[in-house]
Design goal:
540 residues, alpha/beta, 9-stranded mixed beta sheet, 6-stranded parallel beta sheet, 19 strands, 43% helix, 18% strand, binds adenosine-5'-diphosphate-glucose
Length: 540
């Protein structure tokens, strides 16, 4: 029998399942080419998944073409995992992807129900496509594998996988927020979604807040499910199954970002950006063009700053970079027009010879260019109206190797509570507060900036994406092991499970250290000195 003590001992592969693969195939007149997918999930997971053999199942971002398989084969050769595509028809793309996922679940889970289009055809398509993904997993998974399903596109896969006979441990991670019951209950198909989620062995959320929203929804909407306290996470008992409900805040590949940011070419590029921009303070916003990211609200806050603090005119510049996103959906088209109108109004109102207040770019930046902007910036302005985590906040910190940038972050992003001990936290709907935070950041003494950024970088470094992957897989292993022993199923490869006291410390630590209810380990004092507080008092 296999002796499985930690995730390093797992013989089987991780079968990662997400709507998008980390690469996308783009057709052009002469054929097709491979590009890196943008977006947080693909960026984080592609970087963090280094040493574990596996398969990544997902959509290659295009309608079926004969070019897909050879291109994916080639892209697989430079990765530790094989890429396997699930093909989506034009109808699937319109109704499952643009429709159910992005016109219903995305706005609803970001607390914007008035933007939802509850078209029943979308639901039909969502069920059909989730079965397609489940079938691909059933064809791929072997007895020792683990299945890790990602995100809101695929919440029905567990049910379909169980029906297709998949018996291996399965985990699900939600990258976006989970709403409170008053919002979630508006979804006409809430019960089948909750029931399917409970077919997973582990369900992971970005924050304790999301996790407790989910538990409240279960208690309010599915009274047959029993929530039992557990360590480190609660469990839900439903129809003879147990599901662990955990918190696993996602991180980035800190070392890689920091290493690349330190390269001389990036430094030179960043100096060039600063040389070309007039003014003393460069504020940077980097987002997918999405209404949840609060871009119009950010521009209005910046306009208020220039109105309320005229001494900043000519001295502060906002560089706003947006990557085009979901352009086929009407809400997104309107957003682009709104953002561009605001940029031109602000520039029309305030531009002076030699100074343009807002520099706006609507395109995908390559990694080097992105890093050069992160390094050049004095202020990272990350103000989503609602966000599961927000990796831009963490990438900005990792790239700040000179430790002189200030992070302003929304209290409604998962990254807000996590980084609050070093960042300035703001309510993105409070334009006056954001304007005030920008003013304070521009005037902040260098010592305070350094202390804050040092602390932020320490947090981002410690809670990196590798740790996130390990903790999640460990939780799935743990859950699978305890089930095997409950059933006394000696034939299971997971029967020799971790004992509770052997559990990887990272699992519990991630959950508690990042909880929004737990004291931060460090704080900046009024004198801008970094002090250790709370649980880490011994380190003072
Ligand atoms: P996203 O909503 O895609 O992710 P986010 O976490 O901010 O949001 O990640 C965006 C990624 O795109 C970052 O890696 C960033 O560098 C990149 N990016 C943005 N604009 C770019 C540009 N113009 N050029 C190049 N790259 C750009 C979802 C959830 C988040 C969660 C992640 C991961 O919505 O809340 O943090 O998944 O779990």
């Amino acid at each position: 029998m296999t002796d499985i003590r930690t995730i390093a001992d797992i013989k089987g592969r991780v079968i990662n399942v997400s709507n998008r693969l980390p690469v996308l195939i783009r057709k052009h007149a002469g054929g097709a080419r491979v590009e890196r997918s943008s977006g947080g999930l693909a960026t984080a997971l592609d970087a963090g998944w280094r040493d574990r053999a596996g398969v990544w199942i997902g959509w290659a971002g295009t309608s079926p073409t004969q070019h897909i398989e050879p291109l994916l084969l080639k892209a697989s050769q430079t990765r530790p995992y094989t890429l396997r595509s699930v093909s989506l028809t034009e109808d699937d793309i319109a109704k499952f992807y643009s429709g159910f996922a992005n016109e219903i679940i995305w706005p609803l889970f970001h607390d914007m129900p008035s933007r939802c289009n509850f078209d029943p055809e979308y639901w039909e398509s969502y069920q059909r496509v989730n079965r397609k993904f489940a079938k691909a997993v059933a064809e791929t998974a072997t007895a020792d594998d683990f299945v890790w399903v990602h995100d809101y596109h695929l919440m029905l896969t567990a049910d379909a996988m169980r029906q297709a006979g998949v018996r291996v441990p399965m985990g699900f991670f939600l990258h976006i927020p989970f709403p409170g019951q008053d919002v979630f209950e508006k979804l006409p198909w809430k019960k089948p979604i909750l029931k399917s989620l409970l077919e997973f062995d582990v369900i992971g959320f970005q924050s304790d807040h999301d996790r407790s929203n989910f538990v409240s929804c279960l208690q309010g909407l599915l009274p047959e499910a029993f929530v039992e306290p557990g360590t480190p996470y609660p469990q839900v008992r439903f129809q003879g199954r147990h599901t662990v409900i955990g918190t696993f805040p996602i991180g980035i590949d800190f070392e890689e970002f920091a290493r690349q940011a330190a390269q001389p070419e990036i430094e030179a590029h960043s100096a060039e950006i600063r040389r070309r921009l007039s003014g003393d303070t460069m504020v940077l916003g980097v987002d997918r063009l999405d209404y949840t990211k609060g871009i119009p609200e950010r521009l209005k806050s910046f306009r208020l700053l220039l109105r309320r603090f005229p001494e900043q005119r000519g001295h502060i510049t906002l560089v706003q970079v947006v990557v085009p996103s979901r352009e086929e959906i009407p809400n997104y088209k309107h957003l682009r027009r709104e953002v561009e109108l605001l940029v031109s109004q602000i520039n029309g109102e305030f531009t002076e010879p030699g100074w343009v207040p807002v520099h706006y770019m609507h395109r995908n930046l390559g990694r080097e260019e992105l890093l050069a902007y992160y390094r050049a910036a004095d202020v990272g302005l990350v103000t989503p109206l609602k966000d599961g985590m927000n990796l831009v906040a963490k990438e900005f910190c990792a790239a700040q190797i000179d430790e002189r940038g200030v992070l302003i972050v929304s209290e409604f992003a998962g990254a807000g509570p996590e980084l609050r001990s070093g960042a300035i936290l703001v309510n993105p709907n409070d334009f006056a507060e954001v304007a005030q935070a920008l003013h304070a950041a521009a005037l902040m003494p260098i010592d305070e900036k350094r202390n804050r950024m040092r602390l932020l970088r320490e947090i981002v470094k410690e809670h990196n994406v590798q740790r996130w992957i390990r903790s999640f897989l460990q939780a799935v292993l743990d859950a699978a092991g305890s089930k095997a022993s409950d059933r006394d199923d000696a034939g299971s490869p997971y029967a020799l499970k971790l004992r509770r006291d052997e559990a990887m410390p990272g699992v519990a630590l991630v959950a508690t250290a990042l909880s929004s209810h737990v004291q931060p380990r460090y704080q900046i004092g009024r004198d801008a000195k970094l002090r250790a507080i709370g649980r880490a008092a011994g380190e003072d």
